[in-house]
């Protein structure tokens, strides 16, 4: 028995001595802006923005663990002044945002929703200049079904005589095309991500030791992909407006914070006995970039660009005769304001549509006060790289959109606010011009829009109307009632450019607020026998004029028949 125990102990010790171990680190970013030096173009302030700090962090992680991969989940070519400048003003083979990622040592990225924003030619130049692959398994040629871009990448890492193979498959949402210009996608198809990835994942699972799936799309789509594709070890998803990383059923799920808040750091620990590597431990953490100083080599690449871009942004194009200013972010979503009305009126004039909707995209956006207006200040108001479209919508579509908008209001600890979807991204809340409407947030969801009028009469639910909006919203952008609606007109300029041209042509602009909409509380009162306007106003302690204001049909009526329905409404803020 002692000899047997000794033999077992000897075999165990030899086995441990023969075992090999490998530590793999994956750094994951998502929605990295094309602003690649320590400067915030929208605010005009010098700041340590993301990519320059990211370079220092990545270098430190590689010093700590040379077996470190850096993967991004797309939209490297997004509509910031730097990408706008390099695409529209100083177009050349050099793509500064790609050069920055080359300098940092990006291992792979995805083809994201905004990679097509300046057309296929600009994207091709970016790909040719990159020293890393841009992946997408589900963008294919319509004619052949073959992938347009590299569907996957296999990275082989050597350490102390051992080799580890990491496979990375890239996917993107299949609903990108409606958001942007149709001609940019001519000849291309966006196929179902699950169907596209299935074959690649099955094949790579046999060839690699760690299988990574990188996906750019909504949380809902990501959840469905996770349920369908279980062969993976790591799931990188983006963009995430809040930090959501976890380990679920042995799969590391990474969702780094929005833009420059954090980087996901994933650590995979493997053991090799025989020929196969096996993961025995894993972790994921969110690392804030706030404590890292900018990398001077990355700063230097773009210092010349920054000077030129800043001169562009500092250019005065007009003068505000009055304030186009947002004092309070929530109040601006509760009543008509001059900034939203200005954007809508520009959209209506440029497109000829009689109705328009727009967003104020950030809670920190303030607009401008009386005085000169620069290109940089216009960019701060409209930083989203969307063009203008005019959709043909029915009155029912518009009413449904307003009700969907009204759902955004919630009460949190007794305080009125917007829901998390809208707080995370203010572009999810629209303000309208060309119609008159009131929203009562104390009513049930789906019944909060008390009235909608157009040209002095109630909006006809069966009639069609032309509505101007951003190309993002026209493709849905969360508003399903706009999807696949007829496009009447299409303005092939970014709205940022359109507003800039509008101000430059007029030079002096004055704010307007027609108070065509507001948010408050209210209900429908059914008129009883022998009730009068006076008795109803006394019942609810409200002025006759307020009842008349929200019930225009009462004008000229001597008496109100019993059974009539009246709107009793109190806005949170009285008209200015």
Provide a concise account of the structure shown.
With 576 residues, this protein is α/β, with parallel strands linked by helices.
What does it look like?
This protein is of the alpha/beta class and 576 residues long. The protein has two domains: 23-307, 4-Layer Sandwich (Purple Acid Phosphatase, chain A, domain 2); 315-519, 5'-Nucleotidase, C-terminal domain (5'-nucleotidase,  domain 2, Alpha-Beta Complex), CATH 3.90.780. The chain is 29% helix and 30% strand. It is built from 16 helices and 31 strands. The strands form nine sheets. It has a six-stranded mixed beta sheet, covered by helices on one side. Strands 23-17-27-20-28 form a five-stranded mixed beta sheet. Strands 26-25-24-30-31 form a five-stranded mixed beta sheet. A hairpin with a 2-residue loop joins strand 13 and strand 14 (276-288). Helix 2 runs parallel beside helix 4 (96-104), helix 4 (96-104) runs antiparallel to helix 8 and helix 9 (338-351) packs across helix 14 (495-506). It is elongated and about 95 Å long. It starts with a helix and ends in a 5-residue tail after the last strand.
Q: What share of residues are in beta strands?
A: 25-35%
Please give the count of helices.
16
Mean pLDDT: 85
Strand order, biggest sheet? 6-7-9-10-12-11
- Note the gap between the termini: 96 Å
Tally of domains: 2
CATH architect. name of the largest domain: 4-Layer Sandwich
Oligomeric form: single chain
Number of strand elements: 31
Family: Belongs to the 5'-nucleotidase family.
Pfam families: 5_nucleotid_C
Domain LysM: 523-568
GO cellular component, one term: outer membrane-bounded periplasmic space
């Amino acid at each position: 028995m002692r000899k047997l125990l000794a033999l077992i102990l000897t075999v165990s010790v030899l086995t441990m001595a023969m075992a090999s171990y490998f530590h793999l680190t994956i750094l994951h970013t998502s929605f990295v802006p094309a602003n690649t030096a320590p400067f915030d173009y929208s605010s005009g302030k010098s700041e340590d923005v993301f990519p320059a700090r990211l370079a220092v962090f990545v270098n430190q992680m590689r010093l700590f663990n040379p077996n470190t991969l850096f993967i991004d989940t797309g939209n490297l070519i997004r509509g910031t002044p730097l990408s706008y400048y390099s695409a529209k003003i100083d177009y050349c083979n050099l793509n500064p945002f790609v050069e920055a990622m080359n300098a940092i040592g990006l291992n792979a990225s995805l083809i994201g929703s905004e990679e097509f924003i300046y057309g296929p030619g600009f994207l091709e130049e970016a790909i040719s200049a990159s020293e890393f692959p841009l992946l997408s398994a589900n963008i294919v040629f319509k004619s052949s079904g073959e992938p347009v871009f590299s569907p996957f990448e296999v990275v082989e890492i050597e350490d102390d005589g051992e080799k580890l193979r990491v496979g990375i498959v890239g996917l993107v949402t299949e609903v990108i095309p409606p958001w942007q210009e149709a001609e940019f996608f001519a000849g291309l198809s966006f196929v179902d991500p699950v169907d596209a990835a299935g074959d690649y994942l099955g094949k790579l699972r046999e060839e690699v030791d760690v299988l990574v799936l990188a996906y750019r799309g909504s949380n809902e789509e990501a959840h469905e992909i996770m349920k369908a594709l279980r062969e993976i070890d790591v799931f990188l998803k983006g963009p995430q407006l809040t930090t959501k990383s976890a380990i679920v059923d042995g799969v590391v799920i990474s969702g780094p914070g929005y833009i420059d808040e954090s980087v996901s750091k994933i650590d995979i620990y493997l053991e090799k006995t025989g020929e196969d590597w096996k993961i025995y431990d894993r972790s994921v953490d969110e690392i804030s970039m706030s404590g890292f100083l900018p990398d001077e080599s990355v700063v230097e690449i773009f210092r010349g660009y920054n000077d030129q871009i800043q001169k562009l942004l500092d250019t005065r194009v007009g003068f505000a005769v009055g304030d186009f200013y947002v004092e309070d972010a929530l109040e601006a979503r509760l009543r008509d304001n001059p900034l939203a009305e200005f954007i809508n009126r520009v959209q209506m004039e440029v497109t000829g549509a009689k109705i328009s909707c727009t967003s104020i995209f950030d809670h920190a956006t303030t607009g401008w006060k009386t005085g000169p207006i620069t290109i940089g200040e216009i960019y701060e108001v409209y930083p989203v790289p969307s063009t203008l479209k005019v959709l043909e919508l029915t009155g029912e579509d518009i009413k449904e959109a307003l009700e969907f908008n009204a759902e955004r209001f919630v009460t949190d600890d007794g305080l009125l606010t917007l829901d998390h979807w809208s707080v995370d991204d203010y572009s999810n809340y629209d303000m309208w011009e060309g119609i008159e409407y009131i929203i009562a947030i104390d009513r049930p969801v789906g019944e909060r829009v008390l009235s909608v009028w157009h040209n002095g009469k109630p909006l006809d639910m069966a009639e069609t109307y032309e509505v101007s909006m951003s190309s993002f919203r026209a493709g849905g952008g969360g508003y399903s009632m706009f999807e696949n609606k007829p496009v009447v007109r299409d303005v092939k300029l970014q709205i940022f450019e359109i507003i800039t041209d509008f101000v430059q042509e007029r030079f002096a602009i004055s704010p307007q607020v027609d108070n065509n909409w507001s948010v408050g509380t209210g209900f429908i009162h059914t008129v009883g026998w022998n009730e009068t306007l006076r008795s109803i106003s006394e019942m609810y302690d409200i002025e006759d004029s307020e009842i008349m204001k929200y019930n225009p049909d009462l004008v000229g009526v001597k008496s109100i028949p019993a059974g009539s329905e009246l709107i009793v409404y109190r806005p949170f803020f009285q008209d200015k």
